[in-house]
Design brief:
With 602 residues, this protein is of the alpha+beta class. Helix content is 36%, strand content 24%. The strands form six sheets. The chain has a seven-stranded mixed beta sheet, sandwiched between helices. A five-stranded mixed beta sheet has the order 1-2-3-12-4. A five-stranded antiparallel beta sheet has the order 25-22-21-26-27. The chain starts with a helix and ends with a helix. Keywords: ATP-binding, Nucleotide-binding.
Length: 602
């Protein structure tokens, strides 16, 4: 036992010695480093803000002054701060200690991973198109965006390195990471490097992208002789910290200081239990209201209820459902049979439909006529009880019984072969459009279908705050069986199958913005449907051949669409515009006036 304690003490002493060796240098060491070429008061522009390297400053007041120069919509970071309490004393009302940990990877002992990325590959950022996609991912992760021209103009900057993960099949950008080379940035005598802005698309279909990006950057700096790679991570980001622990990072005693601004507000104002209890669909609206100075009161966080007050006007909301939506409009949306009649009367194309109470002969004739049908409850939401692509009488009757668990009235519709399109219409104008794709799994040659679905559900749940999971029910089993497999079969490597025909987010579907590619006929149909129901905020669902084509059929209207699913489109902004027109910023109103004038003159 004494020998074990002595061994543990020796290991502990060794770790402490390594941390002391890597600690921020004192003034004498800094003077020697300056003679070796370390820049004084070094600052690096990273596009989203500036990195202020604390070890290059002798006077903490100079660091405070540098952070005071932070530009609008930027986030500067003072890193490697030795005495944060001293720095904060120079600007206590303007600066705060960031609640983050610093982790370090020793590149002298790091060993590359053996597992090759599957379904994607890592490469350098290579075009302005890549830069635009990186910004899309930043926005989906609520990170500060970078002007695409900055990425492109800095592609030859030896201090900054940008990697992206690209899907082998679609070419989509799935993730990104930025690296900073210390010696090239400020003549770092310790020859260190650092990792910033690791971000993975929440819709990414492949596991392990974040790990692959971290490893690629570590190997990049290792090949260039760097001694270590550091990073800063929020103290409560358990998922990221678990990844860094797995890769061999250790926590070191460096601190980070930031300037108080709107972007960092939650980090220095402290937790608000009621606010934190809101789901993403309520939170995105409350965030926008607070940015405009609108008073917000959380009425029931679990239910997504909140009250907004501005200029003597008060509106009670439940996520995107407000008092402006009438009870009549809600009752129309609640019954899909009524919704169908209303929009059909307005000239919107609808699929042929029969009742689930029809006899076997009528159902068989309907199947024979259309090949495949959709079975769904007349009332319900979030894709519950819906079965798509039914081909046999036996499966149809089973699907009808499953749908009756959610509504006594069941509908059978002709199955339109195409993609599921959600259009957000606010104040009878299109604000956002997104393709909703059903959940798919990709075989690795060793995992069963069940295991792959569970892995997919964990990724989707983590990416959506627990909102998205693939249900393990008979409908999922039917879809897997239709693809030619059983739930316990091992899916061959590279084989992709759809495990759910519905594309709802809550049942594992993914959402892909196509607002800029929508055919005018689809916009007209969505607006006509909204006007027929007389609903000011709605999500109109269509089945389409392509966003660029006019072919469609109407599926349903949703009285409480999830606005958080459509970033980067300004859904929350337009919702608050509707509720409080006088809160629209002057610059926005001026721009809209100019646009209207231009259209009239044109």
């Amino acid at each position: 036992m004494a020998g074990d304690r002595q061994a543990d003490r020796s290991k502990h002493d060794h770790r402490l010695e390594k941390m002391r060796a890597s600690a921020p240098k004192g003034s004498a060491a800094r003077e020697r480093a300056d003679n070796d070429g370390m820049r004084k008061n070094a600052i690096l522009d990273c596009g989203w803000g500036r990195l202020v390297f604390g070890q290059t400053f002798e006077d903490p007041r100079e660091i405070a002054n540098s952070l005071r120069e932070e530009g609008p919509d930027r986030r500067d970071i003072a890193f490697y701060i030795k005495d944060p309490h001293v720095l904060l004393s120079h600007a206590p009302q303007e600066l705060f200690l960031d609640p983050s940990h610093t982790y370090r990877l020793d590149l002298s002992t790091y060993r590359p991973g053996n597992r090759r990325p599957r379904g994607y590959f890592i490469r350098r950022l290579a075009s302005e198109g890549d830069a635009t996609e990186v910004n899309r991912i930043y926005q989906s992760r609520h990170m500060v965006q970078v002007h695409p021209a900055f990425f492109w103009s800095n592609r030859g900057n030896r201090a900054l390195t940008y990697f992206v993960a690209e899907d082998e099949t679609t070419g989509a950008i799935l993730g990104t990471v930025t690296g900073v080379h210390g010696k090239r940035a400020f003549g770092d005598p310790e020859n260190g490097s650092s990792l910033w802005c690791l971000a993975v698309d929440p819709q990414a279909p492949h596991p392990g992208i974040g790990q692959s990006l971290v490893r690629r950057l570590a190997e990049h700096f290792q090949a260039r002789g760097c001694a270590f790679m550091d990073l800063s991570v929020m103290h409560d980001n358990e998922q990221a910290i678990a990844l860094y622990d797995k890769l061999g990072f250790v926590r070191v005693s460096y601190f980070t200081i930031k300037r108080k601004n709107e972007i960092n507000e939650r980090l220095f104002t402290g937790p608000n239990d009621e606010y934190e209890g809101l789901n993403p669909y309520a939170k995105i609206i409350v965030d926008e209201a607070r940015r405009r100075g609108i008073h917000t009161e959380v009425v029931d966080a679990a239910g997504g209820f909140f009250r907004l007050t501005h200029g003597g006007r008060t509106v009670l909301c439940r996520e995107s459902l407000s008092e402006l939506t009438s009870a009549v409009a809600m009752s129309i949306c609640d019954d899909k049979t009524v919704t169908r009649r209303m929009v059909e009367g307005a000239g919107v194309k609808v699929p042929e439909q029969i009742s689930g109470d029809s006899d076997d002969e009528a159902i068989s004739a309907f199947l024979e006529k259309h090949g495949q049908v959709v079975v769904k409850p007349a009332r319900g939401e979030q894709g519950r009880g819906i079965s798509v692509g039914i081909e046999t009488l036996e499966d149809t009757k089973a699907a009808i019984e499953a749908a009756r668990q959610h509504s006594p009235t069941v509908l059978l519709e002709a199955c339109f072969q195409g993609d599921d399109l959600r259009l957000i219409v606010i104040d009878y104008r299109l604000v956002a459009a997104a393709l909703r794709k059903p959940p798919m799994i990709t075989g690795d040659g060793s995992s069963t279908v069940v295991d792959l679905i569970e892995h997919l559900s964990r990724r989707r749940s983590a990416a959506t705050g627990g909102e998205s999971r693939v249900p393990m029910d008979k409908e999922t089993e039917r879809c897997v069986r239709q693809a030619g497999y059983g739930m316990d079969d091992v899916l061959p490597e590279g084989e992709r199958i759809t495990v759910r025909k519905t594309a709802n987010l809550h049942t594992g579907g993914t959402i892909h913005d196509v607002t800029g590619d929508i055919h005018p006929a689809l916009v007209e149909a969505a607006v006509a449907a909204a006007r027929a129901i007389e609903i000011p905020v709605t999500g109109i669902d269509l089945m389409i051949k392509s966003p660029a084509l006019a072919d469609y059929v109407f599926i349903e209207a949703n009285e409480r669409p999830g606005l958080a699913n459509h970033e980067p489109q300004p859904t929350a902004e337009r919702f608050i515009d509707l509720l409080f027109p006088l809160s629209v910023p002057f610059s926005v109103r001026a721009a809209r006036t100019n646009q209207r004038r231009s259209r009239k003159e044109g």
